[in-house]
Amino acid sequence: MRAAVLTGPGQIRISEVARPEPGQGQVRLRLEGCGVCASNLTPWAGPEWMQYPTEPGSLGHEAWGVVDAVGEGVEGLSVGDRVAALSYKSYAEYDLAEVTSVVRLPDALAGQPFPGEPLGCAMNIFRRSGIEAGQTVAIIGIGFLGAILTKLATDAGARVIAISRRPFSLDLARRMGAAETIPMEDHHAIIEQVKALTGGTFCDRVIEAVGKQWPLDLAGELTRERGKLIVAGYHQDGPRQVNMWLWNWRGIDVINAHERDPAVYMQGVREAVDAIASGRLDPGFLYTHTYPLDRLGEALDATRDRPDGFLKALVTYG
């Protein structure tokens, strides 16, 4: 099979390697594609701790495809089933997954890409946020995740204030149901706008979905007394400082909405399958850029640079 190997910072080689064989409780997937995650960008940049070359397929974890072999003890899945999986070497034409980390895709999703891990993440973050009808919710950062959360919160009856840097993202937020949009330009101006929009009380829920220091600072300022600040951004490029004086004074709850339990991950993926198959959620137009495996480097660069109109990249295997 063909698999991507990172050979150094910003360098990829496509190698021919042996197909993996499924072990006890595993299935092998003939992959149709894999989403490109922002968490890939730190290894792509080449931090001091990164070791090269990587194992074939490494970093890819947003896969979907068809079961093509099953290991001993596997029940409930058969060769030919189309599935989404939480697997970890999916920048390749085949990958292995534990049977507990695979969700069958219904016929209603036939032919549709399904990067299960980020879709499941969105569902889990939404559940952890405790968003209800009548609440005012600020979402800072309207990328793939922020756009889906805008839709979920709006459908739940919340009033969403979307805050993002790019005009494209603000247009998208309105399409997903945001009641108000604010350009992410001036820190104090944003605070004053949200204060005016909320009658001085600020927001019941604030979701930070950028993963940088400034949006985290802003999130605290926009959270009302006894509100909830939900950290959905991926903060892996260094330590953060927080305004504990403000957080303490307002008595806010801070929720780190990153899951690490595979069972919880899969619960979110199953919820995403149900939402998309039923028509309640349509993420198809959020997959803005598609690349073949041998252009994975371009997909990673686009994920980093976010050219106009970019939201989410998929790598597909023909």
TrEMBL record:
Gene Ontology molecular functions: oxidoreductase activity; zinc ion binding
Domain Alcohol dehydrogenase-like C-terminal residues, every copy: 145-243
Superkingdom to which the source organism belongs: Bacteria
Reported cofactor(s): Zn(2+)
Gene3D superfamilies: Medium-chain alcohol dehydrogenases, catalytic domain, NAD(P)-binding Rossmann-like Domain
Keyword Metal-binding found: yes
InterPro entries: ADH-like_C, ADH-like_N, ADH_Zn_CS, GroES-like_sf, NAD(P)-bd_dom_sf, Zn_alcohol_dh
Keywords (A to Z) from UniProt: Metal-binding, Oxidoreductase, Zinc
Domain Alcohol dehydrogenase-like N-terminal: 23-85
Family membership: Belongs to the zinc-containing alcohol dehydrogenase family.
UniProt-recorded name of the protein: Zinc-binding dehydrogenase
Organism listed in the record: Microvirga aerilata
Taxonomic lineage from the root: Bacteria, Pseudomonadati, Pseudomonadota, Alphaproteobacteria, Hyphomicrobiales
